Each structure stands twice: as C-alpha cells, then as structure tokens.
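Supplementary Methods S3. Input chains for the assembly prediction are listed below.
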Amino acid sequence: MNTRSGTWLLMLPGLLWLGLLMVVPCLLIFVLIFFERGIYGGIDWQAPTLENVTRVFDPLYLSIFWDSAEIAGLSTLVALLIGYPAAYAIAKAPASRQTALLFLAILPFWTNYLIRTYAWIVLLNPAGLINTLLIWAGLRSEPLTLLYTKPAVVLGLVYSYTPFVILAIYSALQRLDPSYAEASRDLGAGAFQTFLRIILPLTAPGVAAGAVFVFVLSVGNFVTPDLLGGGKFQMVGNLIYDQFLSARDWPFGAALSALLIALMMLLLFAQAIASLRARGDYARA
Amino acid sequence: MRALNGWLIAVYGFLYLPIALLMVLSFNHSGLPTAWGGFSFEWYGELFDNPKIIGAAWNSLVVATWATAISTVLGTLLALGVERSRPSTSREALLFAPMIIPDIVLAIALLSFFTLMKFTLGLRSIVMAHVVFNLAFVCAIVRARLKSYDWSLNEASRDLGATAAATFFRITLPLIGPAVLAGALLAFTLSIDEFIIAYFTAGAGQSSTTLPMQIYAMIRFGVTPEINAMATLVMGVSFVMILAAQRLNKGRLPGA
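Predicted structure tokens for the full assembly:
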C-alpha cells in the first residue's frame, strides 16, 4: 500500500460519500435558484427565471436578514465578552489543570442542543424559577415577561455557543509566547496596557474564529428563535425553514440559503485574512 | 487573578446550573419547577410507558449505530490515505466543510437532492446524511493520532513478509485504535443528538421520528416533568460517551 494508487483507494469511499452527499446537493441549491416552484411544490424545470434572486433583495426579506444579523451580532458580542476572560483564566491556570478545565467548558457543547435550550424555557417562563424567585423575594408583584422576547433568543444563543468561543480563544492564548507579555511588563507597561496592546491583538485570530462561528450558526438558527422567541422573531433560518417545510417554495428557499452561504464564505475569508495579517505582525514583532 | 478565577467559576455556573436544574426536577414528585414534592422516579416510569418516546429512541439508536459504523470505517480509511498523500488544499477544504457548514444548509440541500433523485425519505436517508459530518469528525481525530505514527513500522512489517491486511490489523490498528474508538464514540453522540438534518431528511410519519424530533415536538407543547426525565437520561448518556472519548484520546478532542 505504499503506492499512490493505494492511498487513493483508501480515500476513495470517503471522498465519494462527501462528493455525492455534500458537494452535489450544495451545488444543486445554486441550480434551483434559477427555476420556478412547481404548482404542487417541487421544481418547474420548464421555467427558468431570475425572480428568486431579485426577490431575496426585496426590502421585506433584506430586513429579516438585517434583524437576524442584529441578533446574531449581539449574541456574538456577549459570547466573546463572557468567553474571553474565562479562556484567559483557563490559560493562566496551572498546566496540569488546563485540560480538565477546558474539557469542562466544552462538555455542554457536545450535548443535546434542544435540551440545553429547553432548560431556559423552564427558567424563564411566567411560572418558572426566575419569576417565582423574584416574586418570593418581593422584588416583583407580577411575573416578568422573560420568555418569547428578543433577549431570551440572544441568551439562548449565547448559552449554546459560548463553549466554542472559550475553546477558540484558549487555543490562541496557548500559542501565545509568554515572553511578549513579560517584555511589555519589563518595559513598564501596566497589566491593562499589556493586555490591550500585546495580548489582545495577538489573540485576534482566535477571537475572529470564535466570532465567525457564533455569528454564522446564530444567523442560520431556527430552533432557538422558535423555542425561546415563540416564533415572534423571524430569522433567516426560520425563513428558509418555512420555504422548505410550509410554503414549499424550494427555489426561493434555495436563494435564501445561497445568500447565507455567501455571507459565511465572506466572513471566513475575512477571518483568514485577519489571521494571516496577525501572523505577519507576530513575525515582525 | 482572583477576579478572573471568580469569573471562570461564574461561567461554569452559567453553563451547568440550567442543566443541573433539569436533572434535579426530573426526580421531583410534584412535577413543578418551583415546589419540591419529594424524591420520585415516577416521571421516568411515565417515560418508559410512552410508546412514542420508546419508538423514537429506538429509531435514534438504529440511525446512530449505522451512521457510526459507516463513518468510522470510511473516516479511518480516509485518514490513512490523506496522511500518506501529498497535501492538497482543496481536499483539506472538502474535509473541513462538513464541520462548519450550517446545519440548515446541509439539511435543505439533502432534502432537495433526495427528493429529486426520487430516493424515499426515512431512517436510511438520515443515516446517509449523518455519515457526512460524522465522517469528517472521525477523520480529523484519527489524523491527529497518525501525525505521531511511525510509518517505518509498516515497512518493517512488510519486509518481514506480512501482507498489507495483516500489517493493518496487527500493527496500525492496535496503535491508532484508541483514536478510532474515540472517533466512533463522538460520531455516535453527534448522531444521536442531531436534530435539524434528521428533521429535514426523515420524511413524514412516526416511523422515522428520531428522539430529538420527538423532544422538539414535546418542547413546543410546553414544560412537562416527562421532558426533564428524558433530558436527564439523554444528557447522562452524552456525558458518559464524551468522557470516555476524552479518556481514550488522552484529552485531545478536536475543536468542537
């Protein structure tokens, strides 16, 4: 098996699987865009059209994209603010304990997404734990509306994706050469200044990786807006969901998905550039 | 440093308290989230008396078993091939894509694909879809282990007259075995918890409803003590499997 044909033979089944069941279906999305929906759902191959493309840029749908971007952006920001100090604390812990601490932070990420979201329904609903506690403590006379609000959606997304942010930033912090921070302190910079001018810029690729991940997964999410937003907040994910499972307008759903893919590619590209530039700065520093 | 450690503890609290609450409530006799009515297993009893839940759990088990078996074999072979070939950027992109592609995009792409191919939707199409991302995860874990693998062992084995198959089963597999097993455990966990892609590729009817689909349907109706019991069981199984995978892989799980 030392020959090249041998290695190709090993890779062939896996690559074929990915090609046939990932690449081809994703390319299919880009074909569907240019046709009309059939009368009973499905696709009318006789009617090529550009209508779906122009419809995506209709102000109505653009505003949904904008709203989702706002919710996703806010979630990303909050997840970074929570995750960065946590990752920093793990990176500063004794080396023997770091693996366990990191594992503890990521473990929830590997468990059932629906159940983690459901936990917040239990906490936030009008007869839930938080409202009961507030009333019991005499802080409120009536339950607060916590569930089915925009902050509840943001909270759910932050809760689900913070573990990944911690992982991404921790990896960046771990690669950081500690002598840079020491040099900065030796030259008289304070702890805050060292963080702001040395550590933060050098870990920017990790921050960017975490941010892109949270943003993309949040924008395309339909489960959290549905369960914690009560369906009151349409996000791109919900819109795509509707086109495929309720309205049965697949070509338009495909057009929306294509825009989502384009957005993701753009962000990943920007992140790759930022990461390369940071590496360049590192080399020059 | 004190403040930083305090923050870390608070973050762990944020991550684990909601889950812990569900687990405690699942044993609450009163079934209410706000009043403790004594310790009881009755909600677990209700769970096992519900044929829809048992049926869905069985479907999930079938899907996860098949998806794990196929992706472990294909992913391991893929890793062995990739690590011995010339690096290729497009191949790397292909192997990375399943891990970052938003679930909903893969879900609708596969739904369209299966429908246009006139492929009947059901448990089989869910397995085929799950192998796509499982394959990538298994491959990544096995590749990480192969980075420190000494390929001259294979040459030595071949020089001593062993066939390629004998070399694989007696030299390579025992050495990368823990990583393969870790990959399989991870694939099983991902598959049994996966909701979005299964939801789109399952087709209609209870016969292909998986456990997450059943959970989703129940959650949308509201809070019930039965869901707490189910959540506790599902979380418990995931925790054990991930812990085992972590142990086997000596603490190196790939980036999510």
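Chain A has one domain: 53-284. The longest helix of chain A spans residues 250-284.
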